[in-house]
Amino acid sequence: MTMIRNLVRFSRRQLHTIVSREIIKPSSPTPSHLRTHNLSLLDQIMVNTSMPMVTFYPNTNHSSHDKTLDLKNSLSQTLTKYYPFAGRFAKAAPTYVDCNDDGADFLEASIDTTLSDFLTKSKHEDLDQFFPHGLVNHKSNRQFDDQLDNVIPLAVQVNHFECGGVAVAVSLSHKIADAASLAHFVNDWAKMTRFCSSEKRREFSDDPQFIQFQHVNSNSTEFVYERPDDCVTRSFIFPKLKIDELKLKVKTMTAESAEPITNPSRVDVLTWLLYKSAVTAFTENNPGSCKPTGVAQLVNVRSKMMEKLPEKSIGNFVTHMEIQTKNRSEIRPESVIGELKKQITQFKAVRNIEAVFGIISNVDFEEVKRRDVNLYVCSSMCGYDAYGIDFGWGKPMKTTIAGDLGKNSFVLMDAPGMDGIEVIACLRKHDMAIFESDPELLAYA
User: Fold this and answer.
1) Nearest residue to 168 (alpha-carbon basis) of 390, 319, 422
2) pLDDT value of residue 368
3) How far apart are CA 240 and CA 221, in angstroms?
4) What confidence score (pLDDT) does residue 2 get?
5) Domain of residue 191, residue span
6) Annotated active-site residue in 105, 174, 404, 431
């Protein structure tokens, strides 16, 4: 058993002790015809980062330590379905995954505090300690094997609190999957764990779908999220009751406009509010700035095209809708929400995923990078059943993501208890100071 100690920031105490590490391989070999998984165009241009999601469970009558063997066995069986996650990327800028069954990294750690104390006293950056090798977004402190860095798609860490609570953290390469894929994987792993520990064994009701694409070597450069050192990440909870009030406000504000918003979604109204408050903060810190601003909303395209993909298609199947505004007076709900809805409607005329690839391949990404636009990016994980992940301890008391998202980024997730939405926001420090004190924002948080 390997003992490795890491220092973390939590009241300047040493909380985090790695007690074991091993590689978990699939329980059965991947068939020879599936040994090469070509990355799609969207996969190849996706930002080279790790998606970090963690679920927290309180103490139950079943010891989390006793259940670790079940977690390992079930992960091994789940990897037979998610076989590319147990493979290896060929190089730093890969075009395929070698599905060689080399396995996923599995770490176990002890946390020298109680779960309730951590959730009560911690800050967002304290979540990083729960992830294997610090694999949160672009960060990594992997010291064990340099050959593993940037080539192993999946790593997990099971964290045991001194009270008996547990946190299960999963870090998955964004080069191979999007947030919807990550949620499907963790839910399936949890289901398999429950079945492994019961007498009644079942198969998944629906297997994940890894679509076979032709080998292509994209000439487009991958997305890069700017992460200045002065960025900070904060979490905000918007209760359902307050979101309903915001919906009513939006409908009232647009009732007399040429294109009234009659049925805004909760993501629609929060995207508008977040963008409005962020631009207000930026403008106050940069008086006289003529830089245009914009908001981009990431969209899951699986069900948006004429030829829909299976819901459980695994990979990157997202694109973004973007609008620009010249000043704060243009950030009206009918302008922002209405235009984003219009773009999504137009997208439904796209025939299939190959047509999406064709659209993306014609984008001049170098030109996009040169644009002098203060762009805010909103993505939503709402509805991804993050609070249905049950490893046998019941549903999690909290599910969230860790790490810095990148400058001017917002991720929306279902809130604990499914009461509203949690927003994880990343802004520059001086903008965040104004943003988190915005009276209009706080009226709904």
Assistant:
1) 390
2) 65
3) 40
4) 31
5) 4-196
6) 174
What integer pLDDT is reported at residue 220 of this predicted model? 66
- Predicted local confidence at residue 206, as pLDDT: 81
222 found inside a domain: no
Considering the domain architecture, whether residues 170 and 306 belong to the same structural domain is answered as no
Asked about 390 being catalytic, the answer comes back as yes
What would the pLDDT profile of 60-106 be if each residue is shown by its tens digit?
766 656 789 999 999 999 999 999 999 999 776 789 999 999 999 99
Task: Point out the catalytic residue in the list 149, 244, 390, 419.
Answer: 390
CATH code for the domain in which residue 378 is found: 3.30.559.10
407 belongs to a structural domain:
yes
In a domain, 213, yes or no: no
To the query of whether residue 174 is one of the catalytic residues in this protein, the response is yes
Q: Compute the distance between CA of residue 21 and CA of residue 132 in angstroms, rounded to an integer.
A: 9
pLDDT computed for residue 145 by the predictor: 41
In a domain, 369, yes or no: yes
